[in-house]
Amino acid sequence: MDLAKRGHKIVPVILSGGSGTRLWPVSRKSFPKQFWPLISERSLLADTALRAASAQFTPPIVVANQDHRFIAAEQLRDAGIRGAQIVLEPVGRNSAPAIAAAALLAAESDPDAVLWIMAADASISDLAALETAVKSAAKAAEAGYFVTFGMQPTAPETGYGYIAQGAAMDGLPGVFHLNRFIEKPDAATAARLLAEGGNLWNSGMFMFRAGVLLGEMERLAPEVLEAVRAAMLARTTDLDFIRLDTEAFAAAPDISIDYAIAEKTNKAVVVPAAIGWSDVGSWAALADIAAKDTNGNFALGDVVLENVHNSYARSDGIMTALLGVSDLVVVTTQDAVLVAHKNEAQNVKKIVDRLKQMKRPEADTHNRTYRPWGFYESLIQGDRFQVKRIVVWPGHKLSLQKHFHRAEHWVVVAGCAAVTRDAETLMVHENESVYLPLGCIHRMENPGKIPLTIIEVQSGPYLGEDDIVRFEDTYGRN
Fold this sequence. Notes:
The chain has helices at 44-53, 69-78, 95-109, 127-142, 187-196, 210-220, 222-233, 246-250, 257-262, 283-289, 348-357, and strands at 10-16, 61-65, 85-89, 114-119, 123-124, 146-151, 162-168, 176-182, 199-209, 236-238, 241-243, 268-273, 277-278, 298-306, 312-323, 328-332, 337-341, 368-371, 374-382, 385-392, 400-402, 407-414, 417-421, 424-428, 433-436, 442-445, 452-459, 469-472. By secondary structure, it is an alpha+beta fold.
């Protein structure tokens, strides 16, 4: 996508704060769907950033939950995205405050910069059609309009809001007046909207000049702008990250850009687009866009199908077999299994809500926990002991730390570890081990060129992750 001859620069803004609970058990609060490779070999975030990178725009502004900062930064680096500005939300406040923060940041260098707002977790298959839509939207945004992207509906979908398309705009090919927004409809209303024509799915993708957005916020949502401006003024920088002030940002109303601005502004227009778009909002939606066999099935991972039709099966854990069933979604992870009829796929969040009521950790967290240095996962847990697998990326190291309630035994099974144990520094090679008594100050580092894998055996009366005192940390977690 080549827009290099345009006047104002376009700044991609990627919103990456969602938790994607309708794709549980793969997507959870600790590692939501935008960080998973659900469509291609790359994560949804990486695919989104690369779509913008291929457009020869500026490096993106990514607004992310602070708990996901290292995951987002690592995935952007792995995708070859350089110069991204990662803005960290201390608390979730929906899309209007997130977009306001991005607009304020962009306006510091260029108030006329055109912002292209997109979610980190959508799928777009027709990039040529996307280029055409973006070119039309950019011209309208430069002219001072608040541009929405309306997706041409392919089914009477009840999971999306709709946009009623109006007459064509003079002098802006591909751009139309926006008559009204329509809330998510019931099935009968959705069927009627599809039959009528001229009604588009609201994609949540927008384009406008930074100054236009801020002006409309000043007029229509001043309490949002006031709180976010204060959070930006008091921001701090940390490694690759821009940290918004917690107290100021928490004071912002929890409101979407649709309710705060889009449905109220008199500057709204719409660009209809047929770009192979999906919000990947449910397992059924993912099944719709997945490549299928002759029986209409999609299978990924260690999956066996026999006499199965129109089903979606995925295993990131143990072998999963389906026999004599149809229209199912079956998803297996290391610690949970979901079996649902496709017609119920939109209601997976109800299961997550039930799990939260039961205080089950599976609602929010995976067995595998990612850290800036790598990840760890629990293998066995019993009375006064736990066994973990820990993987440390080359060149990375854990914090210098100690524990009050547990001792640890590290066995290196791949790679080489540089271990600090009080005043000692030890090199521990494959098939060697080191004992860390309770209370000792210790650290593990991977000085090699391959991932370091260790088996950690913990023993003690309390094995919680909060039993840690950090003395020094490369990643600012002291």
